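Consortium newsletter contribution from the modelling node. Members have asked for a concrete example of what our holo predictions look like. Here is one, prepared for the adenosine monophosphate complex that several groups have been discussing at recent meetings.
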Amino acid sequence: MEEKSIFQMILDKEIESEIIYEDDKIFCIKDINPAAKIHLLIIPKKRIETINDLQEEDKDLIGSMVLVAKELAKKYEIDESGYRLVWNTNEDGGQTVYHIHLHLLGGQKLREF
Ligand code: AMP
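And here is the predicted structure:
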């Protein structure tokens, strides 16, 4: 495992980024390279490299991340129009940052797949 993930560096204020939500376990930022009009990242403070590394003890954390995503969708007024939640895992899944994060995408009609 590399020493620090880019998200850990943001959390530690070593890289500048606007933190739009934070609690004791989770923080959220806007994606630097948005794939939709609204593209937010919900990130656990605890470093877990991939979804493959999740443990039973992480159940509550993952549930909390989804609940935060739901609240942000409401705050950004895309709850009714619709949105997509995405977890990319490993190379074929398109994962580039090995510190799990939930993508919240919306604000426009998203491409079907
Ligand atoms: P993934 O490809 O699923 O691992 O997603 C990583 C995401 O992090 C990508 O959508 C990147 O655009 C985003 N990202 C990388 N560096 C930063 C940063 N400094 N601030 C905000 N988002 C970032």
